[in-house]
Amino acid sequence: MSIKAVFFDVGNTLLFLNQTEVLRPLYERQVFPTSELLLHIERQTKREFDSLQQAGATVDHGFWHIYYSHLLRAVSVSDEAIRGELVSRTRMSANWCKIRRHTREILLELRQTYKLGVISNADGKIAEVLAQCGIADCFDNITDSGIVGKEKPHPAIFEAALRSLGVPASESLYTGDVYSVDYLGATSIGMQCVLFDVSGAYRDASVPRAESLEELESQLKRNI
Description:
- The protein is an alpha/beta fold.
- It folds into two domains: about 5-15 and about 95-220, Rossmann fold; about 15-95.
- The protein contains eleven helices and eight strands.
- It has helices spanning about 20, 25, 35-55, 60-75, 80-90, 105-110, 125-130, 145-150, 155-165, 180-185, 215-220; strands spanning about 5-10, 15, 95-100, 115-120, 140-145, 170-175, 190-195, 210.
- The strands form two sheets. A six-stranded parallel β-sheet has the order 5-4-1-6-7-8, sandwiched between helices. Strands 2-3 form a two-stranded antiparallel ribbon.
- Helix 3 (about 35-55) crosses helix 4 (about 60-75) and helix 4 (about 60-75) packs across helix 5.
């Protein structure tokens, strides 16, 4: 089946965290986690979170609660208040403002062939952030869970996005970075999916994956 529409997650797919702003509570304590440690914690958290989700567990505070629990343990900081502040800072759309080189150019190239959309678990403000980062106009529609009222992997948010572009699930592809949220959410309603795996958390998984927009574009040219 040919692909007519490509949908993107935002966090860790199109935009990345402003670590300087998010980790400020640690920096103020003179604690500076390395990029290698942050990637290790991300990979560890994704594997743990996926296992919990697939086991049907209700995970208090979700992915970022687990992530910062691991990080604070790794840097020997024990402070519930700091963990709460880190989670809060991470959940602010405005702090997802780092964009990789050539993102806009690749999106515009893809738009010559496909309808493009966004499906993001966010706070109702992700369209503003994408505009500030200079890529909002690359998309035909931006679907934000803060507006829809349902978060991935709930089928309702994917269905709302598909309706917005008037395309069937079978002719659509989604890319996002968390297996249990993005891959299972999209494929459960019949969309194709490629995991966006910058951290390499899923290198050993037998699922379609890409570590960059360039790689995703190459796969699309081969029609996955």
